Amino acid sequence: MTPSSTPPNAESSLRAPTIEDPSVYLDDPNRKLLEIDTETRQGPALFRWLTLGMEYLIGAILVALIVAVSSNVVGRSLFNHSLPWVDELARMLFIWLVFIGAAAAFARYEHIAVDALVRRLPLRFAHMLYCLQHLIIAGLMLVMVFGGYQVLARSSGRSAIMGVPLSLVSLSLVLCVIFIAAVSLWRVWMSVRVIVQPHGQSAESQGE
């Protein structure tokens, strides 16, 4: 049988199956108002610029980590010599990478979460849970700010090789939790507005 004589039903059965957009399972329309998005200008301008700045900082730290660690690998392999301060620098950069990355991921709602229940709730009840969730997060972050401040106050030493103040390393934790607490309080306010006027907020989100 020639290709031109293939029945239409056979041709349709040979077509590749349609792949569903994975964003259907990743995006939750109920929480759209709570996301920080620099492309669509979703969220306060200050949070958007801070998130974008953190993402650029993450990229710079990642490049510095790769260069530093690779230089020592090449030095040990080819020249049987390594720089003693590289390992210390890599540890400090990794600590900053973890905390700044955690803050940026929180702003974009990219932390792992079990949202099977909240996706099935109506808009108002979903934001009741979001409000409770972010009140708890804000409370925990404020406790960590207090603890981080104490760590900063007591970090008077310096690193063994590079002589970097240890308080500079602890500063990443304080900045991270302050940002997360601020975003959490903003999300609490947005959720309260949705709870009070669910139809008005949903109409605004569709208009955006």
From TrEMBL:
Q: Where in the cell is it found?
A: Cell inner membrane
Which ranges does the record mark as transmembrane? 49-69, 89-107, 128-152, 164-186
Any idea which UniProt keywords this protein has? Cell inner membrane, Cell membrane, Membrane, Transmembrane, Transmembrane helix, Transport
Domain Tripartite ATP-independent periplasmic transporters DctQ component: residue ranges: 65-192
The UniProt entry lists the main location of this chain as: membrane
Q: How does it sit in the membrane?
A: Multi-pass membrane protein
Cite the record's note on assembly.
Answer: The complex comprises the extracytoplasmic solute receptor protein and the two transmembrane proteins.
Q: What does this protein do?
A: Part of the tripartite ATP-independent periplasmic (TRAP) transport system.
Query: What does the similarity note say?
Result: Belongs to the TRAP transporter small permease family.
Kindly provide the name given to this protein in its UniProt entry. TRAP transporter small permease protein
